[in-house]
Amino acid sequence: MKLRRFSELAGRMWEEIPPQTREGVDALAIEERAVPHPDFGDVFTLGECITDSWPSGFGEGEMRSELVLYHGSFRELAERDPAFDWEGELWETILHELLHHREAAAGESGLDDFDWAEEQNRRRLAGWSFDPAFYRFVPTGADGVVRLDSEMFLEVEVPADADEAVFAWRGRSYSIRVPRGVRRGFFQVANLAAGRLWVVVRRRRKRWRPWGGVGGREPLELSRIALPRPAATEA
């Protein structure tokens, strides 16, 4: 999609959003350049919410923003994917950046936390250093599972000397084997959710044993087969 067509389409989409929802956003700007991620060559920034606080005259700052769309980033992704949906991605980007503004104005950080967690997960998948608690910054579903991109994370705490982790998945109880020397680890469950489920094991500490924390060794990553546990029988 050419820059002119892109700009016209973005403008029409912006005007379709109710004015009260756009309140506090001074402009929707289009830039021709692409913005690649500094670490991941196949990741590009499609949009950005540039926010600042301005004196309101009542002792508190008023949050004002400008939304920026990077046409070059859209073009780069479209060249890599013949099925790239320009309109769908454009809508999603505008709404995503608008939500950043609304959260900033409300003093919230949920979307920033989610974006940060996504980046930490990419670092994990690339084999780089990452914060092993990244999934905790994403809201947990009613089933106790955190969903991030196409993966799912389920945290389980196990006793200090346990050699298995027990967890519930879709109404059934399962267990996986856990090496006793592992204090924390990401275990990919190969036979559930098409391998997209990770059981994050945190071993309960003995009082006299130090805990490594985020700055310690990187968590172990292993693949496991989950074994169904017998259903509890009524007395």
Question: Please, could you describe this protein's structure?
Answer:
This protein starts with a helix and ends in a 7-residue tail after the last strand. The strands form 3 sheets. A 5-stranded mixed β-sheet has the order 4-5-9-8-10, with helices on one face. Strands 1-3-2 form a 3-stranded mixed β-sheet. It has 235 residues and is of the alpha/beta class. The relative contact order is 0.10. It is elongated, with a radius of gyration of 23 Å. The protein has 4 helices and 11 strands, in the order H-E-E-E-H-H-H-E-E-E-E-E-E-E-E.
| Structure class | alpha/beta
> Average pLDDT value?
87
Shape: elongated
State the low-pLDDT regions, or none.
Answer: 208-216
Instruction: Indicate the radius of gyration in whole angstroms.
Output: 23 Å
